[in-house]
Amino acid sequence: MSLKKISYLSLFPGMIDQGLAHSLVGKARAAGAIDLHFVQVRDFATDKHRSVDDTPYGGGAGMLLRADVLFQAWNSLTSLEEKSSASPSRPYTVLLSPQGRPLTQDLARDWVLTHEHLIFVCGHYEGVDERFIEACVDEELSIGDYVLTGGEFAAVVASDVLIRLIPGVVGNSESVSRDSLEGNLLKSPQYTRPSEFLGKKVPDVLLSGNHAKIEAWRKDESERRTKLKRPDLYAKYEAGKKLRS
Ligand code: ADE
Fold this sequence. Notes:
CATH class of the largest domain: Alpha Beta
Bound molecules: adenine
Largest sheet: 5 strands, parallel
CATH superfamily of the largest domain: SPOUT methyltransferase, trefoil knot domain
CATH architecture of the largest domain: 3-Layer(aba) Sandwich
Helix content: 40-55%
Oligomer: single chain
Number of helices: 11
Strand order of the largest sheet: 2-1-6-5-8
Structural class: alpha/beta
């Protein structure tokens, strides 16, 4: 099983659609490797002003997205029976929020393997009525310790990370396994033509044609860079190495 569909509940679905219309992700959509489905939350408003938000009970700044409107939008995608089933194709509902679990490459790899259909709920304004979260959300996801004006850009970031991990989306599976962060190591430096630029030459080993030597050089450089730039990741890499040996 692997990820086939992502649905988005949003007040600004065009932001997400456009953000995921280009390059490899755009091609993956055109080729049918992933199906993206957009739901305009405002279509489920019931009053004559089509309002989707209201002031918080107890006072406080800003507006909150209403649970009833979001629920109707969510319900248009998934029935309660489907939601409570144990089937692997059960949609998994994720609220983008700075309070969520941090997005990592490991988490993305896990979700691509374990969910066929993800529903991303994009909050806006000051947040979402807690009763919607309790009733419908399986997990909250954060893309970092900062606050965006809404979940749309976070949904684009998370979708991009997920879609490029779907088998076949990145042409050469070696590129995915050589990614920065795969195995908790950063990528080694890379070079293309010209072989000399501003007086700087490409390292000789890369022109040697000796694949074993090139691999060894890349591994050394990856370790050196990770130790220098991301000591936190390097500690994880070392711990993983100890476990494997
Ligand atoms: N919505 C607002 N800020 C966010 C963040 N950092 N991650 C995910 N969703 C968000």
